[in-house]
Amino acid sequence: MKKTFVCVAVASCIALLSGCGAIGSGSAISNSNGSILGGIIGAASSANTIGNVIGSVLGTNKLTAKQLVGTWKYKGPGCAFTSDNALAKAGGEIAATQIKEKLATQYSKFGFTSSNTYITFNEDGTYSAKIDGKQMTGKYTFDESSCQLKLTGLLLSFTGYAKKNTDGIGILFESKKILSLIQTLSSMSGNETVNVIGDISKNYDGVRVGFDMTK
Question: Tell me, what's the pLDDT at 206?
Fold first, then answer.
């Protein structure tokens, strides 16, 4: 049953790509539609790649409020699309992988590690976190149906999303919001990271970026 579901999901993703026609000028992927299809079909023999394609859409694998509770440590950049149509238009898992690679280069310049970037969600609706060693505390709410995560605090208040990964969770925001968060907490602006995250915001419609976390 699970194998059938995966095959149907991959087939649906390929069908969406076929229906998109040529990639528009708003996409950062300049490959022809056939090249994108070929890349996804060629990688579809890998169970991990199939899982990544499906997992690159918000809400595909629901996270519960109970599962969110605990301490989550930074693993790497996070990325997901708001719908399978947005993922398909951007170029599928190829685009998601490229976005993570771009972010990884910039995140490393900030020095994000599992020891200085983490968040703890408590059962009473409070959270405490560090982003690059900068302390944040406040309250949170999580809507299981929409995957929407709201963080409120004295310094910053943000609305983002939490998604379930195979080995943890992703905490994701609109590109402009994650940029604002990093700038505020790290007191940095006008650097290369600003340009890179800004380019992602402009070139990929329906993308959410942030952090992949593990316990």
Answer: 85
- Asked if residue 202 lies in contact with residue 96, where contact means CB atoms within 8 angstroms, the answer is no
pLDDT of residue 188: 52
Task: Give the pLDDT score at 201.
Answer: 64
Residue 118 and residue 125 in contact, taking contact as beta carbons nearer than 8 Å: no
What's the token pair of residue 57?
């859409």
Q: Give the three-class secondary structure for 205.
A: coil
Residue from 57, 64, 63 nearest 79 by CA: 57
> Cα torsion at 85, 88, 94, 96 (round to 10°)?
-10
Rounded Cα distance between 94 and 79, Å, is 12
Cβ atoms of residues 165 and 54 within 8 Å: no
Phi-psi region of 120 (alpha: psi -120 to 50; beta: other; left: phi over 0): beta
Residue reference for tokens 């280069």: 105
Compute the mean pLDDT over every residue in the chain, rounded to the nearest whole number.
Answer: 74
Which residues on adjacent β-strands are paired with residue 76? 212
Output the DSSP codes for 2-34. HHHHHHHHHHHHHHHHHHH-SPPTT-S--S-HH
Q: Which residue positions in the chain have pLDDT lower than 70?
A: 1-55, 183-195, 198, 201
Spell out the alpha helix ranges (H) of the chain.
2-20, 33-43, 47-55, 65-68, 84-90, 93-110, 175-186, 192-203
pLDDT tens digits for 24-40? 333 333 333 333 334 43
Q: What is the pTM of this model?
A: 0.70
